Protein backbone atom coordinates (compact mmCIF):
# COMPACT_ATOMS: atom_id res chain seq x y z
CA UNK A 1 0.00 0.00 0.00
CA UNK A 2 1.28 3.45 -0.89
CA UNK A 3 1.39 5.84 2.04
CA UNK A 4 1.68 9.58 2.16
CA UNK A 5 1.83 12.21 4.85
CA UNK A 6 -1.12 14.45 5.47
CA UNK A 7 -0.05 18.08 5.25
CA UNK A 8 -2.15 21.18 4.98
CA UNK A 9 -1.62 23.35 1.91
CA UNK A 10 -0.16 26.07 4.13
CA UNK A 11 2.33 23.65 5.72
CA UNK A 12 3.34 22.23 2.35
CA UNK A 13 3.66 25.63 0.69
CA UNK A 14 5.68 27.07 3.57
CA UNK A 15 7.97 24.05 3.61
CA UNK A 16 8.44 24.15 -0.16
CA UNK A 17 9.08 27.90 -0.19
CA UNK A 18 11.65 27.69 2.61
CA UNK A 19 13.41 24.91 0.76
CA UNK A 20 13.35 26.82 -2.51
CA UNK A 21 14.89 29.84 -0.84
CA UNK A 22 17.50 27.51 0.63
CA UNK A 23 18.36 26.62 -2.94
CA UNK A 24 17.89 22.86 -2.86
CA UNK A 25 15.31 22.35 -5.57
CA UNK A 26 17.91 21.10 -7.97
CA UNK A 27 19.93 19.45 -5.23
CA UNK A 28 23.45 18.86 -6.52
CA UNK A 29 22.97 20.43 -9.94
CA UNK A 30 21.62 23.95 -9.54
CA UNK A 31 21.81 26.72 -7.02
CA UNK A 32 19.66 29.28 -8.74
CA UNK A 33 16.76 28.72 -6.27
CA UNK A 34 14.28 28.36 -9.05
CA UNK A 35 15.13 25.15 -10.76
CA UNK A 36 15.50 26.84 -14.09
CA UNK A 37 17.31 25.34 -16.98
CA UNK A 38 20.81 26.77 -17.00
CA UNK A 39 21.42 29.18 -19.85
CA UNK A 40 25.15 28.56 -19.90
CA UNK A 41 26.66 25.20 -19.13
CA UNK A 42 29.96 23.53 -19.64
CA UNK A 43 33.12 22.42 -17.94
CA UNK A 44 36.80 22.28 -18.57
CA UNK A 45 36.59 18.58 -19.35
CA UNK A 46 33.36 18.85 -21.41
CA UNK A 47 31.39 16.72 -18.96
CA UNK A 48 27.86 18.14 -18.57
CA UNK A 49 27.60 20.03 -15.32
CA UNK A 50 24.35 18.31 -14.34
CA UNK A 51 26.23 15.01 -14.27
CA UNK A 52 28.98 16.23 -11.93
CA UNK A 53 29.32 15.42 -8.27
CA UNK A 54 29.99 18.23 -5.83
CA UNK A 55 33.67 17.26 -5.81
CA UNK A 56 33.83 17.49 -9.59
CA UNK A 57 31.99 20.81 -9.56
CA UNK A 58 34.51 22.26 -7.12
CA UNK A 59 37.39 21.11 -9.34
CA UNK A 60 35.65 22.63 -12.37
CA UNK A 61 35.17 25.92 -10.53
CA UNK A 62 38.86 25.98 -9.57
CA UNK A 63 39.89 25.33 -13.17
CA UNK A 64 37.60 27.99 -14.59
CA UNK A 65 38.82 30.44 -11.96
CA UNK A 66 42.36 30.16 -13.32
CA UNK A 67 41.11 30.92 -16.83
CA UNK A 68 38.96 33.77 -15.54
CA UNK A 69 41.87 35.43 -13.77
CA UNK A 70 43.86 35.27 -17.00
CA UNK A 71 41.07 36.85 -19.06
CA UNK A 72 38.05 38.07 -17.04
CA UNK A 73 36.40 39.70 -20.06
CA UNK A 74 36.13 36.45 -22.04
CA UNK A 75 32.44 35.58 -22.39
CA UNK A 76 32.68 31.78 -22.40
CA UNK A 77 35.08 31.72 -19.46
CA UNK A 78 32.98 34.10 -17.40
CA UNK A 79 29.74 32.24 -18.08
CA UNK A 80 31.17 28.86 -17.19
CA UNK A 81 32.96 30.17 -14.11
CA UNK A 82 29.77 31.81 -12.85
CA UNK A 83 27.79 28.63 -13.53
CA UNK A 84 30.28 26.53 -11.56
CA UNK A 85 30.21 29.05 -8.72
CA UNK A 86 26.41 29.03 -8.51
CA UNK A 87 26.33 25.25 -8.54
CA UNK A 88 28.67 25.10 -5.58
CA UNK A 89 26.67 27.63 -3.61
CA UNK A 90 28.97 30.61 -4.13
CA UNK A 91 26.18 32.88 -5.31
CA UNK A 92 27.64 36.23 -4.30
CA UNK A 93 30.88 35.49 -6.13
CA UNK A 94 28.94 34.30 -9.18
CA UNK A 95 27.02 37.57 -9.15
CA UNK A 96 30.24 39.58 -9.03
CA UNK A 97 31.58 37.67 -12.05
CA UNK A 98 28.39 38.18 -14.02
CA UNK A 99 28.10 41.85 -13.10
CA UNK A 100 31.54 42.47 -14.56
CA UNK A 101 30.71 40.39 -17.64
CA UNK A 102 27.43 42.26 -18.14
CA UNK A 103 29.31 45.56 -18.13
CA UNK A 104 31.70 44.28 -20.79
CA UNK A 105 28.93 42.64 -22.87
CA UNK A 106 26.03 44.99 -22.16
CA UNK A 107 23.95 44.03 -25.22
CA UNK A 108 24.61 40.29 -25.24
CA UNK A 109 21.32 38.46 -24.52
CA UNK A 110 22.99 35.32 -23.21
CA UNK A 111 25.14 37.31 -20.82
CA UNK A 112 22.18 39.37 -19.62
CA UNK A 113 20.15 36.20 -19.05
CA UNK A 114 22.97 34.63 -17.04
CA UNK A 115 23.36 37.87 -15.08
CA UNK A 116 19.66 37.73 -14.26
CA UNK A 117 20.02 34.20 -12.99
CA UNK A 118 22.99 35.19 -10.86
CA UNK A 119 20.92 38.02 -9.36
CA UNK A 120 18.15 35.55 -8.59
CA UNK A 121 20.63 33.16 -7.00
CA UNK A 122 21.81 36.00 -4.76
CA UNK A 123 18.25 36.79 -3.74
CA UNK A 124 17.89 40.00 -5.77
CA UNK A 125 14.69 38.80 -7.42
CA UNK A 126 13.13 42.05 -8.64
CA UNK A 127 16.36 43.22 -10.20
CA UNK A 128 16.84 39.77 -11.72
CA UNK A 129 13.41 39.97 -13.32
CA UNK A 130 14.17 43.38 -14.78
CA UNK A 131 17.43 42.14 -16.31
CA UNK A 132 15.82 39.01 -17.76
CA UNK A 133 12.96 41.02 -19.25
CA UNK A 134 15.51 43.38 -20.79
CA UNK A 135 17.27 40.41 -22.35
CA UNK A 136 14.03 39.21 -23.95
CA UNK A 137 13.30 40.41 -27.48
CA UNK A 138 9.63 40.46 -28.60
CA UNK A 139 10.43 39.68 -32.23
CA UNK A 140 12.57 36.65 -31.39
CA UNK A 141 11.47 35.55 -27.91
CA UNK A 142 13.56 33.01 -26.02
CA UNK A 143 11.70 30.22 -24.21
CA UNK A 144 14.52 29.97 -21.66
CA UNK A 145 13.98 33.56 -20.61
CA UNK A 146 10.24 33.02 -20.21
CA UNK A 147 10.95 30.00 -18.04
CA UNK A 148 13.48 31.91 -15.94
CA UNK A 149 11.03 34.79 -15.53
CA UNK A 150 8.38 32.30 -14.43
CA UNK A 151 10.66 30.86 -11.77
CA UNK A 152 11.33 34.35 -10.41
CA UNK A 153 7.63 35.21 -10.34
CA UNK A 154 7.08 32.03 -8.35
CA UNK A 155 9.66 33.11 -5.80
CA UNK A 156 8.04 36.54 -5.64
CA UNK A 157 4.76 34.86 -4.71
CA UNK A 158 2.98 35.43 -8.03
CA UNK A 159 2.18 31.91 -9.32
CA UNK A 160 -0.46 33.17 -11.75
CA UNK A 161 2.06 35.28 -13.68
CA UNK A 162 4.67 32.55 -13.30
CA UNK A 163 2.47 30.02 -15.06
CA UNK A 164 1.71 32.51 -17.84
CA UNK A 165 5.47 32.70 -18.45
CA UNK A 166 5.81 28.91 -18.40
CA UNK A 167 2.98 28.57 -20.92
CA UNK A 168 4.68 31.12 -23.17
CA UNK A 169 7.86 29.08 -22.92
CA UNK A 170 6.00 25.89 -23.82
CA UNK A 171 4.34 27.60 -26.79
CA UNK A 172 7.84 28.30 -28.10
CA UNK A 173 9.32 24.96 -27.00
CA UNK A 174 6.58 22.31 -26.64
CA UNK A 175 7.28 19.39 -24.30
CA UNK A 176 10.45 20.97 -22.91
CA UNK A 177 11.08 18.96 -19.73
CA UNK A 178 12.83 21.76 -17.82
CA UNK A 179 9.84 24.10 -18.27
CA UNK A 180 7.34 21.41 -17.27
CA UNK A 181 9.54 20.73 -14.27
CA UNK A 182 9.42 24.40 -13.30
CA UNK A 183 5.65 24.30 -13.72
CA UNK A 184 5.52 21.32 -11.40
CA UNK A 185 7.53 23.18 -8.78
CA UNK A 186 5.12 26.11 -9.14
CA UNK A 187 2.29 23.80 -8.11
CA UNK A 188 4.39 22.60 -5.19
CA UNK A 189 4.79 26.17 -3.95
CA UNK A 190 1.02 26.61 -3.83
CA UNK A 191 0.61 23.36 -1.90
CA UNK A 192 -0.79 21.32 -4.80
CA UNK A 193 1.27 18.16 -4.33
CA UNK A 194 -0.74 16.13 -6.80
CA UNK A 195 -0.34 18.76 -9.51
CA UNK A 196 3.37 19.04 -8.77
CA UNK A 197 3.96 15.30 -8.98
CA UNK A 198 1.85 14.95 -12.14
CA UNK A 199 3.84 17.59 -14.00
CA UNK A 200 7.19 16.29 -12.78
CA UNK A 201 6.37 12.74 -13.81
CA UNK A 202 5.37 14.09 -17.21
CA UNK A 203 8.65 15.99 -17.44
CA UNK A 204 10.85 13.06 -16.45
CA UNK A 205 9.29 10.88 -19.15
CA UNK A 206 10.26 13.30 -21.92
CA UNK A 207 13.44 13.09 -24.00
CA UNK A 208 16.08 15.46 -22.70
CA UNK A 209 14.96 15.36 -19.06
CA UNK A 210 18.10 15.77 -16.98
CA UNK A 211 19.08 14.97 -13.43
CA UNK A 212 17.63 18.25 -12.22
CA UNK A 213 14.13 17.14 -13.20
CA UNK A 214 14.64 13.82 -11.44
CA UNK A 215 15.80 15.53 -8.26
CA UNK A 216 12.80 17.86 -8.29
CA UNK A 217 10.53 14.82 -8.51
CA UNK A 218 12.43 13.17 -5.66
CA UNK A 219 11.93 16.30 -3.56
CA UNK A 220 8.18 16.35 -4.18
CA UNK A 221 7.88 12.68 -3.32
CA UNK A 222 10.01 13.15 -0.22
CA UNK A 223 7.89 16.07 0.97
CA UNK A 224 4.92 13.70 0.87
CA UNK A 225 6.72 11.37 3.23
CA UNK A 226 7.47 8.62 0.73
CA UNK A 227 11.13 8.61 1.64
CA UNK A 228 12.16 5.23 0.24
CA UNK A 229 10.57 6.06 -3.11
CA UNK A 230 12.19 9.50 -3.10
CA UNK A 231 15.62 7.98 -2.57
CA UNK A 232 15.04 5.47 -5.38
CA UNK A 233 14.02 8.26 -7.76
CA UNK A 234 16.96 10.44 -6.73
CA UNK A 235 19.39 7.61 -7.35
CA UNK A 236 18.22 6.96 -10.91
CA UNK A 237 20.75 7.78 -13.65
CA UNK A 238 23.29 8.95 -11.08
CA UNK A 239 26.51 7.43 -9.93
CA UNK A 240 26.48 5.97 -6.40
CA UNK A 241 28.56 8.93 -5.23
CA UNK A 242 26.17 11.49 -6.73
CA UNK A 243 23.13 9.67 -5.37
CA UNK A 244 24.67 9.53 -1.91
CA UNK A 245 25.55 13.23 -2.03
CA UNK A 246 22.08 14.18 -3.22
CA UNK A 247 20.27 12.27 -0.50
CA UNK A 248 22.67 13.49 2.20
CA UNK A 249 22.18 17.07 0.98
CA UNK A 250 18.40 16.69 0.88
CA UNK A 251 18.28 15.24 4.40
CA UNK A 252 20.64 17.92 5.71
CA UNK A 253 18.69 20.82 4.27
CA UNK A 254 15.34 19.41 5.34
CA UNK A 255 16.76 18.85 8.80
CA UNK A 256 18.05 22.41 8.97
CA UNK A 257 14.57 23.63 8.08
CA UNK A 258 13.09 21.24 10.69
CA UNK A 259 11.08 19.82 7.81
CA UNK A 260 12.34 16.25 7.45
CA UNK A 261 11.73 15.52 11.15
CA UNK A 262 8.37 17.25 11.12
CA UNK A 263 7.28 15.28 8.08
CA UNK A 264 8.33 11.99 9.63
CA UNK A 265 6.45 12.86 12.81
CA UNK A 266 3.23 13.49 10.92
CA UNK A 267 0.52 10.88 11.05
CA UNK A 268 0.83 8.59 8.03
CA UNK A 269 -2.34 7.56 6.23
CA UNK A 270 -3.05 5.69 2.97
CA UNK A 271 -3.03 7.91 -0.07
CA UNK A 272 -6.49 8.53 -1.34
TrEMBL record:
SUPFAM superfamilies: TPR-like. TPR repeats lie at residues 143-176. It comes from the Bacteria. Keywords: Repeat, TPR repeat. This is Tetratricopeptide repeat protein.
Amino acid sequence: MTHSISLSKTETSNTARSLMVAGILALSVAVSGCASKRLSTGSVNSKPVDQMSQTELKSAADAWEKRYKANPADKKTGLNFATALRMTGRNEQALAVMKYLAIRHSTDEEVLAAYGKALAGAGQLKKALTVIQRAQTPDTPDWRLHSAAGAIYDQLGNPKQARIEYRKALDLKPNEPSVISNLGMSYLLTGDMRGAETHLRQAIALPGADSQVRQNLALVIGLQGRFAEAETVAAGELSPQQASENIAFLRQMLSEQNSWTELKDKKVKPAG
